[in-house]
Write a structure and sequence with these properties.
With about 400 residues, the protein is mainly α. About 80% of the residues lie in helices and about 0% in strands. It is elongated, with a radius of gyration of 30 Å.
Amino acid sequence: MKLSYFSLFLLFLALASSGYSQTAKDYTDRGNEKEELGDHSGAIIEFSKALEIDPQNKESFVLRGISKSGLGDFNGAITDFSKAIEIDSQFITAYFIRGSAKSRLKDYIGAIADFSKALEIDPKYSMALSNRGYSKSELQDYNGAIVDYSSAIELDPKNSFAYYDRGNARKYLENFKGAISDYSSAIEIEPRKEWFSSRGGAKFQIKDYVGAIADFTKVIEFEPRNEKAYYLRGECKKNLGNNNEAIEDYNKAIEINPKFAESYFGRGEVLANIKDNIAAIVNFTKAIEINPKLAPAYSNRGSAKADLQDHRGAISDFSKSLELDTKDANTLAQRGLVETRLKDYNGAIKDFNLAIEINPKFSKAYYYRGLVKITLDQKDSGCLDLSKAGELGDAEAYDAIKKYCQ
């Protein structure tokens, strides 16, 4: 959880009550007033004047650092926070906000060190635990992050952000059910649009499409023109076979954002599923125009062309997709299958070989390679491929064995 400017403002209000010489206090009061109005530059001038009078005042350095943070000058802020720590090595607030500034600069190792120092001074500093957890997550130490978030929650069971951030860490570890539980706890404390969206995404991952639809619908209630929520809800409906409703959601997403390539792609998938291949091709083409690096759009357009017997056009699209994603075993197998229709058997076998190399459990690649080998009078090898496909669960393989391998 990152420290908000509002939280920083509350912090400097508290600090402003510390003792100053009268003149320094006048400058500090004016600095606080300007900071409250969002005049960060003006506030810095006032705090600097206070420091000219009292250069050992740790609070003035912290306040000026906060104003520098407000301008995005995090390096300058860190310098001021460090000066405050030089004056008072036990100044816990300075460690905390210096860690927050380092986090903004993506110096997560430095941030962790500062949050850890704050926790040495006060082991029950829940915000330091939460922020250290965030920095650990950014370094992909998700298990370490979960430990910190859990400790923060023990200290403050109403810390909705700690639940949410712990849910994110669990999501990255593919513990989607744990993530859903945490997102739900966060929502119970404080319903927020982003949290419904994240919970919907986690439900999508475990194929709870009905539950995900409910969450994305909630996001739309918060923000009726959220094109991503319509798109994701459309994806759920597509996976449930609710084709017409899915198209309605993709249409709405495109209405809100006509440059949303993924929505054209999703709509194209639904149209291909219902065998409206020409309309599907139009949608995949539009997605490609918007995002020429969207590999699945080329692959799916190739599949639609193959269904329309445009084999050479299909191979061209599969090849473009594979330029963008060389490890797509499914597209390799599709290209191989179309190559067999054009009697390019050597090319087909090469593609099936590559598909199997990428995914050794790809039963259809073994199946199709086996059939091509049999066509090339390589019966023994082909029948072994069919047997392997059967071992991997392809029922068609045994029908082919009965037909070709006796």
